[in-house]
Design a protein that fits this description.
The protein is mostly helical. It folds into three domains: 89-226; 229-264; 277-382, Arc Repressor Mutant, subunit A, CATH 1.10.10.1420. Helices cover 65% and strands 6% of the residues. The chain has helices at residues 4-21, 33-71, 80-85, 89-93, 102-105, 109-130, 137-147, 154-163, 195-216, 229-250, 253-263, 269-312, 319-329, 337-350, 374-382, and strands at 169-174, 184-189, 316-318, 355-358, 365-368. InterPro entries: Cdt1_C, CDT1_Gemini-bd-like. Residues 1-36 are annotated as: Disordered. Pfam families: CDT1, CDT1_C.
């Protein structure tokens, strides 16, 4: 059923149709033509003026762009791993309403401890600078662990740099005192000239930490360190050496003698004596490298296990998982599963207080004591 409103709206349309059919309809005179013409002219003028003003604005913006690009500093590119390592928003900002000042922030141990680390590192850097000694991370670690009973790790340096990027100038360098394979160590420099500057830096660090927490949440991330090119070069070098030594060892001695006799031309007696001496020297070098190879492999394996447990923040792991991880990570040594298990048994005998095996129904567990530091383990391997 149609309503009265619908009927009324249809009525003028029906009258119009009937008038057109009977040829009695006439078009009304356009009384709004002058007004429409003036309106179109005004609209055209407005469009022209907006286009002109838009061009001026565009040109002025194009001139400003190079200046703004020069003034802008490059923002730090955040890696995917650092984004994934962050907790959820609820975890990061759950207790943020309680941290309303620097004093309340320092009531939490993780923030006050980091400030204490920053203070001790600054004092140690100033001391090493006065003694004209290179400020290696291993040196700072040993001195502070003896004097202040604190252990400065690479992770703490990364947290400080995350809050205060200009706190230190860090880079990788060779440390001859280390017993590692690559002897690379993080060298840390800071622009500290007097004891007065220590207090100013600490106060500034606390303020930066408070601002960082208010912006990013309670969890402090890790700054990205420069690439360790020394370690990469040493790994490539060891891989090449291992391949060469293995090729030499796999060749039978008889085959070597026959090939040398068939290929070598006739030399004088003096040259033959020199060649024999060189061969003996080469054999001694191979024997020496073979003698040192187990120590290098044990040092590499102990460093890998120590790092693997610290990164995963655990003390117990199944032995099978540790062996699989070591097989994938220590490919340069070309070890099999049985050899790795024998090396782990040697480490257990050398350092019984560091790692030990525990029987379990689901599988054998390898337990590691996190309180024992890696340098002491490496020293015991070197002294074997």
């Amino acid at each position: 059923m149609e309503t009265n409103y619908q009927k009324e709206t249809k009525r003028p349309q029906q009258i119009l149709k009937m008038a057109k059919l009977n040829n009695t309809y006439k078009e009304p005179e356009d009384t709004y033509e002058p007004k429409r013409r003036v309106k179109n002219q005004i609209q055209q003028l407005n469009e022209d003026s907006s286009t002109f003003n838009g061009m001026e604005y565009f040109e002025s913006q194009q001139q400003k762009l190079p200046q703004e690009q020069k003034e802008k500093t490059p923002e730090k590119a955040e890696s995917v791993s650092s984004i994934l390592a962050k907790g959820s928003l609820r975890e990061r900002f759950s207790n943020l309403h309680l941290i309303t000042s620097i004093d309340k922030m320092l009531m939490y141990s993780k923030y006050s401890n980091l400030c204490h680390f920053f203070k001790e590192i600054d004092e140690m850097l100033l001391f090493l600078q006065s003694q004209q000694k290179p400020p290696f991370l291993n040196t700072i670690y040993e001195l502070l662990s003896q004097n202040s009973k604190i252990k400065v790790t690479q992770q703490i340096i990364q947290q400080i740099l995350e809050i205060y990027p200009n706190a230190y100038d860090v880079n990788w360098s060779l440390n001859e005192k280390l017993i590692q394979l690559d002897r690379s160590d993080l060298i840390i420099r800071a622009n500290i000239k007097s004891h007065v500057q220590l207090g100013e830096r600490l106060h500034y660090f606390k303020q930066l930490m408070f601002d960082y927490i208010q912006k990013n949440g309670e969890q402090i991330g890790l700054a990205i360190l420069p690439q360790n090119t020394i370690q990469q070069q040493s790994q490539i070098k060891t891989q090449v050496q291992n391949v060469l030594t293995k090729q030499i060892q796999q060749q039978p001695q008889k085959h070597e003698i026959q090939s040398q006799v068939s290929k070598e031309p006739t030399y004088s007696k003096v040259s033959q004596i020199l060649i024999e001496k060189l061969k003996q020297k080469k054999k001694l070098e191979i024997i020496q490298t073979d003698h040192l190879a187990p120590k290098k492999q044990l040092i590499a394996l102990s460093s890998l296990i120590h790092q693997y447990y610290l990164v995963r923040d655990v003390s117990n792991m199944f032995l099978l998982n540790v062996v699989k991880y070591a097989l994938n990570s220590l490919k340069q040594f070309m070890l099999d599963e049985n050899q790795l298990k024998n090396f782990i048994d040697q480490l257990i005998k050398l350092c019984p207080h560091w790692i030990k095996l525990i029987d379990n129904q689901s599988g054998t567990i390898l337990r590691m004591n996190k309180e024992i530091d890696l340098p002491s383990i490496i020293r015991s391997i070197e002294q074997m």
